[in-house]
Amino acid sequence: MQKNKVTTTALREMKARGERITMLTAYDYPSARMVDDAGIDAIMVGDSLGNVILGYKNTLAVTMEEMLHHTKAVARATKRALVIGDMPFMSYQASVEDAVRNAGRFLKEGHAEAVKVEGGRSVLNKIEAIVGAGIPVMGHLGLTPQWIHQFGGYKVQGKTGAAAKLILEDSKLLEQAGVFSLVLECVPWQLAKLITERANVPTIGIGAGPYCDGQVLVLHDLLGLSGEHIPKFVKRYARLDGIMAKALSDFKEEVRGEKFPSLEHSYEMPNEELKKLVGHSKARKRSAR
Ligand code: KIV
Asked: Average pLDDT in the 35-54 region?
């Protein structure tokens, strides 16, 4: 395992050594601290923030201010992992100037160390400009959720030879534009394998099979905190939803049943002070209880 602070260079070296890269999303201080302590290599403050944390129906409504608010919290908690801020919808699409300014805000205000941008050939000039400003960019190809209306839903991408060829070409174009890594989301494993073999930068898969250089999952999916309907590619490593539901119900029952709080969870006033408050005899009675 990479012991020191993980950098974009370190991820490239891991690919060269054939060492698998781990990445997870996180959106707040306590979860980022746990992910970092677990030795995960990179933390993506994903715009999945919209669905996972803020209760939006997709990622399109997420704003720069919301992303920065959460990126700051994650960066404060993270010592080792590389922190990547996900550029939200319309923070880079409209102009190169928007793209560079907003990417810069992720580093300057959010204290991220890199940004992620969704899309292929149509965003190349934005990626080049961001990289040109000294900001590392992670690309994202395949099912890019900001394109959901264009795709007509959350569908596996690159299933036909022709569609796969476009994604393969895009991966090369992004590499030429200077991305340090590439997320491949919901593409057939054969395509992800081919891209990974041909790419000089590490690929991080999500729903892209076992042959990528690394894997990413949404933290809440992995922990079993995102409801019953999860995509085929998600593996739940725990069911924290059940554990949390039980804790909440136990609290409710114990308060209603006057079991919580007991004196064990209460602060005590010294007897002399109690006497000053309620008088000698009452204090004795009270402390005898
Ligand atoms: O928004 C997100 O969380 C992502 C990761 C899953 C890569 O894009």
From this structure: 98
